[in-house]
């Protein structure tokens, strides 16, 4: 992959976490790798905490605070 230039994707990945009480280490989601995902064609897709879809804001913790604000 070092010879291939990484391109930013228009798509994003929303990591939706399970309730924090189900993790041994909720601060790291039990050491999950939340870095960008690089596809075979060199496109990089970021993992985000929230994003807007059809006028609503979806968030990792499934709360509606951002949407209400």
Question: Would you write up a description of this structure?
Answer:
The chain is mainly β and 69 residues long. It is built from one helix and seven strands. The strands form three sheets. A three-stranded mixed sheet has the order 1-4-3, with no helix packed on it. Strands 2-5 form a two-stranded parallel ribbon. Strands 6-7 form a two-stranded antiparallel ribbon. A hairpin with a 4-residue loop joins strand 3 (37-38) and strand 4 (43-45). The longest helix is centred in the C-terminal third of the chain and has 4 residues, at 65-68. The chain is flat, with a radius of gyration of 15 Å. The mean pLDDT is 82.
Spell out the key features of this protein:
single chain; 69 residues; mainly beta; 3-stranded mixed sheet; two-stranded parallel ribbon; 1 helix; 6% helix
């Amino acid at each position: 992959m070092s010879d291939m230039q990484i391109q930013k994707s228009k798509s994003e990945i929303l990591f939706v976490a399970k309730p924090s009480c189900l993790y041994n280490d909720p601060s790291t989601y039990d050491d999950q790798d939340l870095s960008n995902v690089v596809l075979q064609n060199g496109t990089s897709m970021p993992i985000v905490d929230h994003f807007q879809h059809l006028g609503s804001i979806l968030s990792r913790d499934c709360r509606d605070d951002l949407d209400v604000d």
